[in-house]
Input
Amino acid sequence: MLEIAPSILSADFTRLGEEIRALEAGGATILHVDVMDGRFVPNITIGLPVVKSIRKMTDLTIDCHLMIVEPGRYAVEFVEAGANMVSVHVEADPHLQRTLISIQEAGGKAGIAINPATPLVSLEEALPFADFILLMSVNPGFGGQKFIYTATDKLRRLRQTIIERGLKTRIEIDGGIDAANIGEIVEAGAEIIVSGTGIFGGGNPTEGVKKLIDAGTNWT
Output
C-alpha cells in the first residue's frame, strides 16, 4: 500500500495546524518529523515538545526520524510523546536491536534509517527486528536536495532481500522525491514516500499530496 508521508520540515511553522489539515485533505496518512541534533547532522530542528503538540493536532500517524547521536537514549521518549513510528540510524546506534525492541515494547513501530553511502549489509543482523527501513536517498540534514540516483538500485536490492528472507518489513524512502520520479521509486519497492519540497514547494500542500498519490499509483 502506497502511503505519502509529508515532511513537516518544509511546512510553515507559524501556521502548522493549518498545514497539517491541508495535508490531511490531500490524503496524507503519515506526518514525517525530522529530529536533528546538530551532531549526527549539521542542523538542529525540533524535539519532544513539538511532537507532543503535533499529537494534539492530528490523528495521523506520526513518524519521527531521529538524526541524532545516542538515539537509544531518547527513542522511547518519542513514542511516549505521541510518535507511532520511530526510526534510528544504523550508523549511530551500536545497540540497534535493543533500541528497536524498546520502541516496540513502548507501543511504536521501529525503523532503521540508513544513509546513501552505507551498504545494505549493515542491516543484515537487525533487519528481522525492524518494522520498516528508512532508506535515505539524500544525505540527511537538509531539505530540498536532489535525489541520489543510485538509491533506486539499492531500493530494489533491499526489497529482494526482504522477500528472500520472508520478512514483512516495509520500506520507506526519503529525499528528493516528487511527482516526476515517484513512479520508478514505487516500482522499485518503496511503500512509504517521504517528501517535503515536493509537497510544500508549490504553495498548496493539499494539491502537492494529491499529485504525488496520483503519480505514484498511475506510474505504469
In short: Strands lie at 3-6, 30-36, 61-67, 85-89, 109-114, 132-136, 170-174, 192-195.
